[in-house]
Amino acid sequence: MKKVLALILAVMMVLSLAACGTATKTEEGKDTFTIGICQLVQHEALDAATKGFMDALKAEFGDKVTFLNENASGDVQTCTTIVNNFVNKKVDLILANATPALQAAANGTTTIPVLGTSITEYGTALGIKDFSGIVGGNVSGTSDLAPLDEQAAMITELFPEAKKVSILFCTSEANSDYQVKVIQKNLEEKGLTVEKCGFTDSNDVTTAATKAANADVIYIPTDNTAASCAATINGMIGDTPVIAGEEGICKNCGVATLSISYSDLGKTTGKMAAKILKGEAKIEEMKIEYAPAVKKFNKEKCEQLKIGVAALEEKGYVAIAK
Q: Could you tell me if 194 and 143 are in contact, meaning their C-beta atoms sit under 8 angstroms apart?
């Protein structure tokens, strides 16, 4: 009887040790994850970034990753509410899609990893002076910034007779303000007159767009509010050509753009997230990553304005897919 009891105790100890080993493995190396996604507003570029991010993580983890996908519908305060909800639920990582979402996430937690995407310039977004490319702490991510000097060069390349350029942008977006300053300086150095046509939100975009049309060319930076209002802008600018900071705006109201693929940007962000979740990288050491930019044109708009498509293709521009 004593031998039987000893054998039972020995088996129980083995099972207990095995259970402890499993618990330790789960605690130190989780294989199921919950990710909170806070997207500022619904439009083509941000939607593509979110989808690319999710696709990359599904490819890595399959059904072991769960997404809490929330859209703030353009309301900055709602971003804060969404992030606070993620913090309360103790998600494993937060994707902040667009600058106000990133600002809300950075203010909402110092412990949960936060990856931004569709952010133009992290130093401007987070108030970091002399930004070095690494945010530090619990924040990193990807930038949608295409080379602004090359975008300015597109204006003089495609419209060499232009004398005046209007810059149409949302004044409440910090990253738009950054782009406007850089583009304005660059264009003025080329001898062009620049007029800034700002709007605070979608309610006054019509007035600003009408004003912007009184120029030879309009430039619209990578701007979430402008992107969500691109169809409205198109209806107000008449035959004034638009050079856009990103493909979604160009597709709706522009002639040409030097733009990145937001789907690829999202996938890059997703791969960064996978490294963090698997313990292969420390977020505080991760540099901001970028996507390559491509010259693209809106064939329908070019034909409408009698801008030679063949000439654009010779210059290396690629038609935007419908």
A: no
- Give, in order, the Cα–Cα distances in Å from 290 to each of 144, 152, 205: 7, 19, 30
201 and 225 in contact (C-beta within 8 Å)? yes
The pLDDT tens digits of the residues spanning 131-168 come to 999 999 999 999 998 899 999 999 999 999 999 999 99
How is residue 299 written in tokens? 């064939």
CATH of domain 148-259+294-319: 3.40.50.2300
Predicted TM-score of the model (pTM): 0.78
DSSP 49-110: HHHHHHHHHHHHHGGGEEEEEEE-TT-HHHHHHHHHHHHHTT-SEEEEESHHHHHHHHHH-S
Residue type, 149: D
Distance set, CA 196 to CA 114, 176, 234, 270 (Å)? 33, 12, 18, 36
Q: How many whole angstroms separate alpha carbon 59 and alpha carbon 275?
A: 13
CATH code for the domain defined by 32-144+262-290: 3.40.50.2300
The pairing of strands 242-244 and 217-220 is: parallel
Determine contact, residues 248/223, Cβ cutoff 8 Å: no
3-state secondary structure of 171: coil
CB 229, CB 14: distance < 8 Å? no
Q: Which tokens is 95 given?
A: 């994707």
Intervals of CATH 3.40.50.2300 along the chain: 32-144+262-290, 148-259+294-319
